[in-house]
Amino acid sequence: MTAAQQPPTPRASSVTLKIVSIVFYTFIAFFCIGLPIAVLPGYVHDQLGFSAVVAGLVIGAQYLATLLSRPLAGRAADGLGTKRTVVLGLIGVGGSGALTLAATLLHGEPVLSLSVLVIARLLLGAAQGLVGVATNAWGINEVGAEHTARVISWSGIASYGAVALAAPMGVGMVQLGGFNALGAALMALAGVALLCIRRKTSAPLMRGERLPFWAAFGRVAPYGVSLTLASIGYGTLTTFITLYYLDRGWNGAAFCLTAFGVSFIVARLLFINAINRLGGFTVALACMATEALGLALVWLAPSTAFTLLGASLAGFGLSLVYPALGVLAISQVPSASRGAGLSAFAVFFDLALALAGPLMGAIALHLGYRWIFCFAALLAVSGLGLVLLLARHARRAGH
């Protein structure tokens, strides 16, 4: 009994190594997302001459495409296989890089450049959906459902860590090589990942009941709505922090994304086992309260130092919301429909990011950039209230 409860360290290390070898492809995909994220709003606004709302829509287009691709990603991961689904996603990343390069070469024709750029963002969003769902399903199938929280946590570390590293690198890349360097970098990174995955063995397909996407969606929806309310703050920060800094006359907006990502990773590394010890509801409530405090601090910040502190608190808080609610959500679907369950739950995160651009862009247009972080904090508090209701319902059902 003791041995079963406390597996030897080599086994735990082996599980972690397997997970990391799979979420490596998540890291590559999100690194490609992070490279342009701090510079594209400025490119659309300053170079092409479009409004802040249009800049928000361009960023949000990627998240909308990810959202719409989730049913396909779930079916592909469950039916086609996880490795093949990841390969398709990486090919999409490379294609998005080619279109991004074409868009920047056409900067003299603003409408045409914007149109090609939107298509590139849509393709990148669909690729993100394929890679994200497939790597999570691949990892859980490989190491077992009992390690679901660990797989989701490491996937988040890979994705947010990639954005944290890539955002300032993208700024430096544009300063040194111009906007054309972005597309070329995306193509190169996708090519490297495709070379690495060739000899990787995929986990076998799971057998058993396969739920349609919408059936899985209905089962995970109560937890997903809470995730949406909590995650709009992240979409707001990534989409508008550059323009917020410009509006305040500050420099170094990319470091806010770095602060968010570093805090996110530190929290997951320090508290990766908290969900199993304390329960998903308890962890989600504590984290959402911390995130709301961080967003409020960004709203009220008198200087960049306070903004960085707020971004750090927001990242620290959001860190375990996804895995905490995700473990509860995925337990509602059968193992053979794990891809459908993961994709359905991820839809709610995508929805938050798709809504953040146009919604907060409209608020910024009427009230100013500061107030978008106030609204994001209020939405996080609303999500916290919903989690409280779900926890009470779960306790009553348990009795």
TrEMBL record:
Q: Which UniProt keywords apply?
A: Cell inner membrane, Cell membrane, Membrane, Transmembrane, Transmembrane helix, Transport
Q: Name one GO cellular component term.
A: plasma membrane
Q: Where in the cell is it found?
A: Cell inner membrane; Cell membrane
Where the record annotates domain Major facilitator superfamily (MFS) profile, the positions are 212-399
PROSITE patterns in UniProt:
MFS
Q: Does the keyword Transport apply?
A: yes
Q: Does the keyword Cell inner membrane apply?
A: yes
Provide the topology term for how it sits in the membrane.
Multi-pass membrane protein
Predominant place of localization? membrane
GO terms for MF: transmembrane transporter activity
Matches recorded under PANTHER family: MAJOR FACILITATOR SUPERFAMILY MFS_1 (PTHR23517:SF13), RESISTANCE PROTEIN MDTM, PUTATIVE-RELATED-RELATED (PTHR23517)
The similarity comment for this entry is: Belongs to the major facilitator superfamily. YhhS family.
The protein in question is named Uncharacterized MFS-type transporter HWQ56_17185
Question: What is the native source organism of this protein?
Answer: Pseudomonas eucalypticola
